[in-house]
Model the fold of this input.
Amino acid sequence: MTADRTVTATFSLDNQPPIIDTIQVSVSPTTATISWVTNEPATSRVDYGTTPVHDQFVEDPTLRTQHSLVLNNLTPGLEYHFSVTSVDVDTMSTSSPDDTFMTPSALPGSFLSDDFLTPSRSTPACGRSSIPSAMPRPPSVDPARPMPG
Done:
């Protein structure tokens, strides 16, 4: 470059909070996934509880426009209240009004367990189980006895 150049930049202050839209809830007996979109990158937070006074929350500080948070360890068959909040880079915040969802009851005769997620000491690394099969074994064949036929 041989000549000086002038560059002009114009900045404007964002004085509007994010707009929350399309709140969706997907539930199971013990979890709920709350999803929503915002018109600008913002954080994600869900406050929730069994009353309108939300006593628990989950959050993700990542700035994004597609938001999704999972609520874990919910009780089957209960109504939960929740509200979502998003904060943009300029710390402008907006929250949804209180809403509710119901966790479904566990199926009759079923039980909830996370025991299937832990490795078993009886399963060798090669993938063969040392647990006896519930399938009946074929009858033994005596080589000294002739086959019917």
The CA atoms of residues 96 and 110 lie 35 Å apart. Strands lie at 20-27, 32-49, 56-71, 79-87, 93-95, 99-102. The domain at 20-102 is CATH 2.60.40.10 (Immunoglobulin-like).
